[in-house]
Amino acid sequence: MNKLKKTAYIGLAVSALALSGCLSSSSSSNRTAPTPDEPVRAQQERIDDGFFVVNEAQLPFASLAAGVPAYDNTSRWWGVLDGAGYRIEVPENWNGHLVMYAHGFRGEGPDLTVDSPPMRQYLLDNGFAWAASTYSANFYDVRVGVEDTNKLALAFTDIAAANGRTLAEPDKYYITGVSMGGHIAGAAIELETQQTANNFVPYAGAAPMCGVMGDTALFDYFTAYGLALYQLAGVGADSFPVPLDEAIEKRDIAREVLWTDYAANKTPLGLTLAGQPLFPILQNLTGGPRPIYAQAFGGFQDLLQGFLGSDGTITGILNDSVVDTTSTVYRFETLPGQTLSANEQAFNQSIIQAEAVPGANALRQDGLRWIPKVNGELYAEIPVVTVHTLGDLFVPISMQQIYRQNLEANGFGDWLVQRAIRAPGHCDFSIAEFTATFDAMIQWEQNGIKPGGDDLLDQAQMADSNFGCTYTIDGFPQEVVRSLMPACTP
């Protein structure tokens, strides 16, 4: 830890994206009755009880640049389709391609809201139409996100016609999204989705950004962090799940034992001798040694500790726990691939493991799994370009490593390009980085120009102090935070 004392650490706020005309319907395609022996999920009860409501006042959106002639004749429509709100924008010189944008996690409230894509100007300037859905439910409901996004894509020409513009069916569909929306984009191009979804769209390419590309492995990670926190503090869990009141008690003890003053300094410099192993444990759980990790460490502790006490059902998306830490290896003295030290062996042998309930997220007969899989088995050979920030500890870059491994195992590795960005937060890309990622996928799909990328499985490359410099494009709106990060050196 001595090297860490030479670096200024910054507590960083984390943003969890997460990030006229009407064609409406009051029906919901997500009301799928359980089989006789299947309990109704908490999420299904929320849907059936009408808990989720489209915030229709939030749907309208303004011209990209008022008074700019190039956008004067752009069509902009919004409305509600089967319980999900939407926005659609079609430039006058539409090129026949439709881009679907999937937003990130919206929390657990009732309001359903929509985002416009960050690369909106690029899309309009290059003739793309785009559409985005609120989805018909909040929580971590990726199944709803995939189905509603695809349903909107398939309704595109009908919505256009209802608003007085006759359009041909798109000749190409693309999908992009952030955070949970990255999971949606990744799942949408899977063979399993083609085989099981109620609504399937044959996307020609995808650009998942800061996405949950390891699907339920994200929740294994949250659980592993909590179990390690308790174990280091000397109050290891006896079983999983840990009841909420007990989890809070253990959390408070961990804050006292592992930090000198948790409220005042959550950074690595604030860790006690007992707490110092948490730094490398979390580093290795999230992708291994890499730039920007140290600067991001403190800013994510509150968020990660907010998942303590979770029961593994992903807040009622499932009826049983899907989390599994039986293959998790906790390292604080060695690197992946090396033999565990004696201390690490003792730690791994003593820490409790969470085991998934068999069939908790099994295949279903009524459509996609409750949490759609990103197996790395594409429905076709299509280009996929992903991008991820190095400091993200909410949806860590390890999700991209899992995705790479899965695609390689299924013979689709040549169809994936991945890029790392030197930023400390979740999905905190500059507009230029959003745009460059999407454009790289488009150039590959339309012109056969395979873009460059980073090797996220090469530990030595990732650990280099300049890793991530190649595709980082500083600019709006990250200038201030980026100025506090370690600079790239010649």
Describe this structure in words.
By secondary structure, the chain is an alpha/beta fold. It folds into two domains: 15-38 and 64-214 and 372-490, Alpha/Beta hydrolase fold, catalytic domain (Rossmann fold, 3-Layer(aba) Sandwich), CATH 3.40.50.1820; 217-313 and 323-350, no CATH class. 29% of the residues lie in helices and 11% in strands. The chain has 16 helices and ten strands. The chain has helices at 42-48, 120-125, 142-154, 156-162, 180-188, 191-196, 217-232, 244-258, 278-285, 293-296, 301-305, 342-350, 398-409, 431-447, 459-463, 479-482, and strands at 53-54, 75-81, 84-90, 97-102, 111-112, 129-133, 172-178, 205-209, 384-389, 416-421. Strands 2-3-6-4-7-8-9-10 form an eight-stranded mixed beta sheet, with helices on both faces. Helix 3 (142-154) crosses helix 5, helix 7 crosses helix 8 (244-258) and helix 7 packs antiparallel against helix 9. The longest helix is centred in the last third of the chain and has 17 residues, at 431-447. It is globular, with a radius of gyration of 23 Å. The two termini are 26 Å apart. Residues 1-33 have low confidence and may be disordered.
